[in-house]
Amino acid sequence: KVARELGIKHFFAEVLPNGKAEAIVKLKNEGKFVCMVGDGINDAPTLAVADVAIAMSNGSDIAVESADLILIANDPLYVVNAIALSRATMSKIRQNLFLAFVYNVLAIPLAFLGMLNPIVAGGAMAMSSVSVCLLYTSPSPRDLSTSRMPSSA
């Protein structure tokens, strides 16, 4: 039911603990990127093998310790929100790296040729940091457009 609501076409359910890890290893050997959501002791070894491991906060301690991400709300539909948030974060990181690259491509040759005053360069560097902070605090609606809140929220 959850996989259908999330739009996941290929999934495994009702699998014994040793079968879970085998299924993930098989998918990874095929070059697939694997995300595992679990909450029990029997999920911990599988969470450790997955590329991305997500645990429910009310899950067993070992499952929570094995996870890369812990959902505070114990609703697997929040995985959609976690993916949307991670995509928005990566978009901001790429944007900031691009701006830093442009700044360096422009400023370093000018400074090397003596055409850029060190005080102006320092001010420009400070302004680039301010622009990163301003851009960070304003995610674009496009970044979060895939986010869907579960109906129980």
Could you explain the architecture of this structure?
This protein has about 150 residues and is mostly helical. About 60% of the residues lie in helices and about 10% in strands. It has helices at about 1-5, 15-30, 45-50, 60-65, 80-110, 120-135, 140-145; strands spanning about 35-40, 50-55, 70. Strands 1-2-3 form a 3-stranded parallel β-sheet. β2, α4 and β3 form a beta-alpha-beta unit.
Can you describe this structure in just a few lines?
The protein has 153 residues and is mostly helical. It contains seven helices and three strands.
Estimated radius of gyration: 22 Å
Helix/strand-derived class?
A: mainly alpha
Annotation field: number of helices = 7
Proportion of strand residues: 5-15%
Residues in helices, as a percent range = 55-70%
Q: What is the 3D form?
A: elongated
Strand order of the largest sheet: 1-2-3
For the sheet with most strands, the description reads: 3 strands, parallel
Characteristics:
elongated; 153 residues; mainly alpha; three-stranded parallel β-sheet; 7 helices
List the helices and strands and how they pair.
Layout: H1 2-6, H2 17-29, E1 35-38, H3 44-49, E2 52-56, H4 61-66, E3 69-71, H5 78-112, H6 118-136, H7 141-144
Parallel strand pairs: 1-2, 2-3
Helix pairs in contact: 5-6
